Amino acid sequence: MELKQAAKDFVNGFDDRKGMFPYEAFNIDNVYEVLSKSEPFTMEDFNSSLKKTKISELDYQIYLEDVKRLHQHRVKNRWDYLQFYDEQDTYIMIKPLMTLINLQFKYKIDMFSFMSMEACSNAIKYVKAYEDIDVNGVYPKFEDNSQKFYLTENYWQSKVKGYLSQDKHQKRDSTNNVQDSDYNYFKQLFKGSNCSICGCKFTFDNKPTLDKIDNSKGHSKDNVQPCCSCTRVSLDNLYPQSTLTKSYQSYLNSSQMTPKLN
Fold it and tell me: Could you name the CATH architecture of 153-257?
């Protein structure tokens, strides 16, 4: 990103008029003579043999206005104008950096955790993207006009068989698994609740399933919570069953190894 663009993005009320300076108007032999003069540089002084460019009439008039304005204050010669030009150049660079630093304090970005200001800026970008999100809200916010879900006995029986098959495959204890006889209980549960993970309502387009609270145990009534089928699939893709089981077992082992403080 160029300095000018960075300043526009990160500084309120940005003014990029740092001035113009003819770098090729002098050399090491005549620098003191040229910069000690009090009259403004000529248009020809701004010609660049390196860039093959010339200053426009508009830009030159802006330069003359700056010189006139500065002469009313402290600028007496070209040395003073050079100092003004350098200060403006530095100010334009420092101000967006200070804005970024203030944003890092505001959004609690740990600057020592990132390798560059660019990485810090990227962290701020993501914080700002989520700053108006309600963690207790339901997303996406749209009107779901599909038919509200109601549990049928056939659907429940197929789910019970599926839970039992999953637990046997994962070698989990299925002794207290949900049964066909729990139909009325879960019919009322699905009717009066939303997804425990995303908060969405259950419809025939978004059917419910049961999510295990403790993944090392089976689908017992006290170890499940209502959940969207699509959310459950997404979690399984992100966190495979074996990974969750191993992670939970590691947690248990570490908890048992940790001495309790009185």
Answer: Orthogonal Bundle (1.10)
